[in-house]
Design a protein that fits this description.
CATH topology of the largest domain: Nucleotidyltransferase, domain 5
Strand order of the largest sheet: 5-6-7-8-9
Helix content: 25-40%
Radius of gyration: 20 Å
Number of domains: 2
CATH class of the largest domain: Alpha Beta
Strand content: 15-25%
Number of strands: 9
Shape: elongated
Length: 217
């Protein structure tokens, strides 16, 4: 789901498992909560004809007025241009990943994609701010470095987590910065189990400058 906030000029996206009514409602709730927590309460929402009855009821419960745009009339909905902008940006990111990067992990690249996209857009509320800064505050590249997404990386393994003669690092894929850690990245690691056709995956945050990793379960 792609959403466009006019005041901050920010583009937001939330992955969905399908286009069913419950999936649409769950994705919209996440986007609505993101804007509300940042002081951008929605007053008017323009929707296309795919809006479900549950979504309309949720907007009424939240006191949000909504309008449905005519089918095929994209110029009536500003989010249509935002959708094209986001798709072009995300396609460029996917094309820059490693040739063997598994596309099933593409949804995990969304946080970095939205960050870099909104760092290129100015806010309408305050023209001196970027859209990202309007939503989340100033972005500190020193605390949160950004690397090429979907690239192969090696993650240091602590001595107690590896065998005596095992390699000191394991392969993984960079899927974006770890915003809650200092100078860390989010890495997707696959490990071969006892059977060749089984793999176990986990998420870790990898420190950039020192040998440390933090496991998120």
């Amino acid at each position: 789901m792609i959403a466009y906030d006019y005041d901050s000029n920010a583009i937001l996206a939330e992955p969905m498992t399908s286009q069913t009514g419950p999936a649409l409602l769950a994705a919209y709730k996440c986007i609505h909560q993101t804007l509300t927590l940042r002081g951008l309460r929605t007053k008017l929402q323009r929707l296309d004809n795919q809006a479900s009855t549950a979504l309309k009821q949720y907007l009424l419960d939240k006191g949000v007025d909504f309008q449905l745009t005519p089918a095929g009339t994209h110029r009536r909905n500003a989010v249509e241009r935002a959708i094209r902008t986001f798709k072009n940006h995300f396609i460029a990111i996917l094309c820059s990943t490693d040739p063997e990067f598994p596309l099933r992990l593409s949804d995990r690249l969304l946080p970095q994609a939205l960050t870099t996209l909104n760092l290129l857009r100015g806010s309408r509320i305050n023209p001196k701010l970027l859209a990202y800064a309007q939503l989340n505050g100033a972005f500190d590249f020193n605390c949160t470095p950004i690397g090429p997404p979907g690239t192969r990386v090696l993650v240091h393994e602590l001595p107690e987590a590896r065998g005596t003669w095992a390699p000191h690092a394991g392969p993984g894929w960079n899927i974006g910065p770890a915003f809650e850690h200092y100078r860390c990245y989010r890495v997707y690691i696959t490990r071969n189990g006892q059977r060749a056709d089984r793999q176990h995956a986990r998420m870790v945050s990898v420190a950039r400058c020192h040998a440390k990793n933090i496991v998120h379960r």
